[in-house]
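Q: Sequence in, structure out?
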Amino acid sequence: MKGQSGGNTQQAKFQALCSALRPDLLRFAFWLSRDRALAEDVVQESLLRAWKAQDALLDERAAKPWLLTIIRREYARTFERKRLPTVDIDELVAREEPSLALGENQDLAEVRRAMFSLAQEYREPLLLQVLMGYTTAEIAAELGLSQPAVLTRLFRARHQLRAILGEDAQLDPQP
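A: Exactly. Output:
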């Protein structure tokens, strides 16, 4: 019984930790998917996987990066399992489909497209810094890089974004 009581305490602690991190996890999943329902599903599945593997988490301070990694992998798994329906664009244009005229905030869509066009080695550190508020030390630990390498990648990512978005990147300070 004593061991079980300790296990219940550990489980309660893990559950509290996951609950505290859930808003950040959901924001990350939503940024990846751009679909609130899918983001909720991914976070739910990820938390279930984390619950089953909670013994693998040795340091509570590493919980956030650990959970973000699980979310990234779970999001990728959704495309292994799910085949999205395709739409014939030419047919929609021929029918003058009204949904073609709908659009989201143009600036946001443009920045998002620009970010997704970056190579993963630049996109991921930028995403962790801008969206998740990670420090360069946390990004370095998450990605297995040195802090100078992270700073270089962040600089190059911003430089490339400015160039893609048509801003003058020549005025950027050097890293």
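Residues 19 and 47 are 10 Å apart (CA to CA).
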